[in-house]
Amino acid sequence: MPVTLGQAAWALMFVAIYIALVVGVILALGLPGIIDFTLESLLLVLLTTITAAAILALYVHLYRRNNLTPADLGFRRFTPRLFHLLWQIPAAIIVCAIMQGLSLALTGIDATTAEAADDPLADLAGLPASLAVIAVLVIAVLTPVWEEVLFRGAFLDGLSRRLRPSVAIILSAALFAAVHIVPLSFPYLFTFGIALALLRRFHQNLWAPILLHATNNALVVLLALLIARPAG
């Protein structure tokens, strides 16, 4: 059966608690110099531990607590309908980029300045190649899975049980954008959240938004690494 809004909110609360705990432990070890982190290694450690904490929280407090099945969260068999993603994925990314560009133009913010201010991923360019690959895998594979389970597998279904589909899509997208805490990227993330929700409803399958999310994240992190990595 579909996830309820209460179950989704409960899961989000524990995701936040688990993430706060692991971040607190890492900072407690790093700030006094118990562990000597570089900026790049700290970002990688935070990225991997936050992802692990979120996955564990969702498994324990959403999946196991409510005796859900993968199908309840939207994991269903692939169908030929998924071939629509061949045009839907590039179209969605282009529309999101256009919305972000229009927002920056209307507010008078320089795109280069905004990119520098909002792009901690560029710091990962200082990592060895093997660790950079781990970062890419976490961002492009694991992060899309747990975020889609939470926002499109839980919150979108929970909101849809109480509200009209259009309202549920908008609210789930706004929540998705807000929790990323990146104000300058809110237009992109909000539009992206709407696109992910539309794919979830169109395909009736969580794999569709996961594939869009994974493609987007891979492009973002690879572009950031390529721009930041010194020539030669």
Profile the largest sheet: none
Number of helices: 9
Please state roughly what percent of the residues sit in beta strands, choosing from under 5%, 5-15%, 15-25%, 25-35%, 35-45% or over 45%: under 5%
Mean pLDDT: 89
Going by helix content, strand content and strand pairing, the class is mainly alpha
Rounded to an integer in angstroms, the radius of gyration calculated over CA atoms is 18 Å
Order of helices and strands: HHHHHHHHH
| Poorly predicted runs of 5 or more residues | none
How far apart lie the N and C ends?
55 Å
The portion of residues assigned to helices is over 70%
Q: What is the general shape?
A: globular
Counted beta strands: 0
Key words describing this protein structure:
single chain; 232 residues; mainly alpha; 9 helices; 0% strand; globular
